[in-house]
């Protein structure tokens, strides 16, 4: 299992001004772009390592015409605006980034967008004797994107082979640990089955983290989609999938005045998707969703949601800035993209951001120090609209979890909170937040 950190490059850190583009150089420019780049990532590796992260997922690095990078123009070229004009120099920089992460025992995966590409894709630079084909949009999501993207026809053998070789190229030639596979729902399971086999032939323990999500679907629909894509022909195709259903449920439950037993039920349901060979990846933010604090505007609820992510029996993924409760731009024209704002680093942190960073780092340390944080069985104890008490057990160890939405008196038992190491006696006041006690 991993504790991951997503970097959307253009918004993270600008380490080299020589590759900066002007706004007019982009087909689509997002106003909070700060021209972040690979050199910027290189300069902030120690910051990421100090947090306690053991996997980084880099947003798209390939040639594109947008600040988000999801419109690939050339799968075999690193974008000049995050590296250099010289392709070989760019590859050397990427290798340096990979090497420095690995020196710190941090794995690195690349964001690979195989469902679609730029309408201006460079078909002259296909380095194989293949002629890939495109097709018309096949889903409501693709119809919304058709002005920006073309869509690959993987029913065509040449196209399927071309896309699989793209994956092979970066895995063979660079010491990456795998891929985050964008909009994996857009391609059929038999494609991913073959893709997975070919990647595992190159690297046995390759990480294949899939995005299976209908952004217009409800919780149950997304749950069933994940369940459907996780295995094919009795084999796990992906090593992990993002659990969008769990994200949606905890976000809604925490922000409603309903019995918090519903949180426990959401955990129980998600646990059915975790297998030894394939674990869910849990999160409360990503680049296609608003910042959690902008959705709830309640710091205690933010901490509860973060704590829930770190007690699940799967992987965790922080969006850059998640560790300091970074706010987005609530006035941005697309609220779901409003979280794409510049990262803030320690020299510019407020007292609140310093405090939340400490909270996040503590969660990461607890997860590494106590196996029960990421393993074990959940048991329901008690709940109301204001609190939930549950317990995990693993190898004769017990973790009591207290989720509190409104200030209450401790009528449960005396316990020591692992997060702040404070002892709570019977009748002591417990303020809103999440609490862990181990025995």
Automatic annotation (TrEMBL):
This is Alpha amylase, catalytic domain. InterPro entries: GH, GH13_cat_dom. It comes from Geotoga petraea. One of its GO terms (biological process) is oligosaccharide catabolic process. GO terms for molecular function: alpha-amylase activity. It holds the Pfam family Alpha-amylase. It comes from the Bacteria. Residues 6-367 form the Glycosyl hydrolase family 13 catalytic domain. SUPFAM superfamilies: (Trans)glycosidases (SSF51445).
């Amino acid at each position: 299992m991993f504790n991951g950190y997503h970097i959307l490059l253009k918004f993270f850190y600008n380490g080299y001004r020589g590759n900066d583009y002007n706004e007019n150089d982009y087909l689509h420019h997002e106003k909070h772009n700060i021209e972040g780049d690979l050199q910027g990532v290189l300069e902030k590796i120690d910051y990421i390592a100090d947090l306690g992260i053991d996997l980084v997922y880099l947003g798209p690095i390939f040639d594109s015409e947008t600040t988000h990078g999801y419109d690939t123009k050339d799968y075999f070229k690193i974008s000049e605006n995050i590296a250099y004009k010289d392709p070989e120099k760019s590859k050397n920089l990427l290798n340096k980034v990979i090497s420095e992460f690995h020196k710190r025992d941090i794995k690195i995966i690349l964001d690979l967008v195989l469902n679609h590409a730029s309408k201006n894709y460079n078909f002259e630079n296909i380095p194989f004797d293949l002629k890939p084909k495109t097709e018309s949009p096949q889903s409501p999501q693709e119809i919304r994107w058709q002005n920006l993207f073309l869509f690959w026809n993987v029913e065509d053998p040449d196209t399927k082979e071309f896309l699989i070789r793209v994956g092979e190229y970066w895995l063979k030639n660079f010491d990456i640990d795998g891929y985050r596979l964008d909009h994996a729902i857009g391609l059929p399971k038999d494609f991913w089955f073959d893709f997975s086999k070919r990647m595992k032939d190159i690297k046995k323990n390759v990480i294949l983290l899939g995005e299976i999500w209908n952004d217009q679907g409800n919780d149950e629909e997304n749950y069933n989609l994940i369940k459907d894509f996780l295995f094919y022909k009795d084999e796990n195709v992906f090593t992990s999938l993002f659990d969008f259903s769990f994200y949606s449920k905890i976000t809604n439950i925490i922000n409603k005045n309903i019995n918090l037993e519903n949180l426990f039920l959401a955990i129980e349901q998600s646990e059915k998707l975790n297998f030894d060979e394939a674990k869910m990846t849990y999160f409360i933010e990503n680049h296609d969703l608003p910042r959690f604090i902008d959705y709830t505007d309640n710091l205690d609820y933010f901490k509860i949601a973060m704590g829930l992510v770190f007690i699940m029996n799967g992987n965790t993924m922080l969006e850059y800035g998640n560790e300091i409760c970074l706010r987005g731009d609530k006035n941005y024209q697309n609220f779901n993209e409003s979280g794409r704002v510049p990262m803030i680093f320690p020299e510019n942190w407020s007292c609140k951001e310093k405090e939340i960073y400490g909270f996040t780092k503590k969660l990461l340390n607890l997860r590494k120090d106590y196996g029960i944080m990421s393993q074990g069985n959940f048991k329901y104890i008690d709940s109301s609209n204001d609190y939930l008490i549950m317990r995990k057990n693993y190898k004769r160890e017990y973790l009591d979890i207290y989720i509190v939405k409104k200030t209450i008196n401790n009528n449960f038992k005396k316990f020591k909170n692992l997060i702040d190491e404070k002892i709570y006696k019977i009748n002591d006041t417990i303020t809103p937040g999440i609490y862990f006690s181990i025995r």
